[in-house]
Amino acid sequence: MSTTELELPxxxxxxxxxxxxxxxxxxxxxxxxxxxxxxxxxxxxxxxVFALEDKCPHKGGPLSQGIVYGKRVACPLHNWNIELKDGxxxxxxxxxxxxFAVQVQDGTVYLDI
Length: 113
Hints:
It is a single chain. The protein has a domain at 37-112: Rieske Iron-sulfur Protein (3-layer Sandwich), CATH 2.102.10. With 113 residues, the chain is mainly β. Helices cover 0% and strands 40% of the residues. The strands form 3 sheets. The chain has a 4-stranded antiparallel beta sheet with strand order 2-3-4-8, with no helix packed on it. A 3-stranded antiparallel beta sheet has the order 1-10-9, with no helix packed on it.
């Protein structure tokens, strides 16, 4: 009897972090990591999930405490708008934070850390 192994790219390490319902709609949950610091996992009104480094590219404000709207989050310190998809500030502001791959399967959220 043979077995089949699933090969994932070396850089992919999806880890179960929570259920979708544990992330507030239009809010975030913070995942603390040794390698990447705090990661904010966001859920928008359409139940889409995104993950970004939890610090604004402007002055390091905690994006997890910002207001989520559409596919953006507004930094709580100076109201910079950050795209949830890629972590980049909306013009005229400039700068980006690291984004992380995230998946939802059967109501469980997985994060690539």
